[in-house]
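If I may wish for something, please walk me through the protein I am sending here so I can picture the backbone:
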Amino acid sequence: MIQEFWNAFQKDYGQSNLTYIEAFAFGSGGFMADRLLALVLQGKKTATCSSKAAWGNAPLPRPGDLSIVLDGRGQARCVIETQSVHLIAFNEVKWELARLEGEDETLDSWRVKHRAYFQEEAAREGRAFQEDMPLVFETFKTIYFKPEDKEFTNYK
């Protein structure tokens, strides 16, 4: 199904030699993935962040990278293109950057939610959360989605 979506994207985009770096769902899947996908398709979510530790030895994203975003059921829904990548400590994230994730109304609420997420992640990986832990903060633009996926733009 992902390959079919990618083939349709390349055909509609007028190119046949493009590659994507990953196909992923935002959040932990299910309802959260659908909610965050809706923010992407509404144009409210134009960034995402992850702990640098979660990347391990994998290469970090780079401007121009293409990725497929999945819904909560693992279905391909859109293609995003990385615009910029910032390595920044958790406690140095400013509202100008955090608001691009489209999930919160204030920097304080962003920090509370993301602290909880990164604490859980660190515990699963056997490490401790630290306020100065490095994050990979990626901005992106949505470059493709099927018109029938407009249903997600009304998702709350």
